[in-house]
Design brief:
This protein has 8 helices and 7 strands, in the order E-H-E-H-E-H-E-H-E-H-E-H-E-H-H. It is of the alpha/beta class. Strands 3-2-1-4-5-6-7 form a 7-stranded parallel beta sheet, sandwiched between helices. The radius of gyration is 18 Å and the shape is globular. It starts with 11 loop residues before the first strand and ends in a 14-residue tail after the last helix.
């Protein structure tokens, strides 16, 4: 396991989806943890500027970039600006994401399917690829946090495209962790985060399965931050995510469908989903 980061003093932290919600909370923790530079990426220019104003004057230099991460050319341009202004990050939090909660055949090809895969999956790969070579070359303790989902571990109705986007993130993210270890780059640690529903508004209307209430964002962010600094490979929250994954692995499919659908209520959790207004 990578060396535990005691402090982020002298470090540069880049957070995507940083204008609001958990992305903003990660930025607040970066400032609190004495990061030298905190780089905020988001597509919402107005909220981004507002968040920057709240963070300025507290010890960290705040940089903002209006970036639509659904397009590679936007990522490439913003990454070049980052390298010119503050240098590549020591900590990368791939937080930006969207969700579409509907049956697969109701998804629009571009606005739903392409957008979800581009933002939730490909953007994480492209952004990481932009900065990872410098992280490797510098030899300093570095961190990458990839926000996946419990939906990437278990199939669920009305989440087919979202689940597949997060399924891909988990496979890529943990493979990247293994590659870095195998190649001897142990100073770069990857944490794959797999949460159930969180009270951010993104999953408005969703109901938590049995024993899995919607989690409080601040509690979640603080736990992720701790895992990141420790270099923890995978974080699942809450504990029922790990339990469900284990049961899915040992039960016959028909039995699991009964447990997930009728006992835990997983398969009905998105029936009343509305999402953020």
């Amino acid at each position: 396991m990578a060396k535990h980061l005691q402090t982020l003093a002298g470090s540069t932290v880049l957070i995507t989806g940083a204008a609001m919600g958990m992305g903003k909370m990660y930025a607040q923790l970066a400032v609190k943890d004495h990061a030298s530079h905190v780089i905020l990426w988001d597509v919402n220019a107005e909220l981004l500027a507002e968040t920057a104003r709240e963070l300025e004057g507290k010890g960290s230099v705040i940089h903002t970039h209006v970036v639509g991460v659904s397009k590679l050319e936007n990522i490439e341009r913003a990454a070049e600006d980052v390298r010119a202004q503050s240098g590549p990050p020591d900590v990368l939090i791939n937080n930006a994401g969207i969700v579409r909660g509907k049956y697969f055949w109701e998804h629009d090809q571009r606005a739903d399917i392409a957008a979800t895969m581009n933002i939730n999956t490909l953007a994480l790969m492209h952004i990481t690829r932009e900065f990872l070579p410098a992280m490797i070359e510098r030899g300093r303790p570095s961190r990458i946090v990839n926000v996946a989902s419990a939906a990437g571990l278990l199939a669920n109705p009305r989440m087919s495209v979202y689940s597949s986007s997060k399924w891909a993130v988990i496979g890529w993210s943990d493979s990247l962790r293994l590659e870095l270890t195998q190649a001897g780059h142990r100073h770069v640690a990857v944490t794959t985060f797999c949460p159930s529903y969180i009270k951010t508004g993104m999953f408005e209307g969703a109901r938590g399965p049995l024993l899995t209430p919607l989690m409080e964002p601040q509690t979640v962010v603080e736990r992720v931050w701790k895992a990141m600094k420790e270099g923890q490979p995978v974080l699942m929250m809450p504990w029922t995510v790990k339990l469900s994954t284990a049961l899915r692995g040992v039960l016959p499919l028909a039995a699991w469908d009964v447990v997930a659908g009728r006992v835990f209520g997983v398969y009905k959790s998105m029936e009343h989903f509305t999402g953020r207004k």
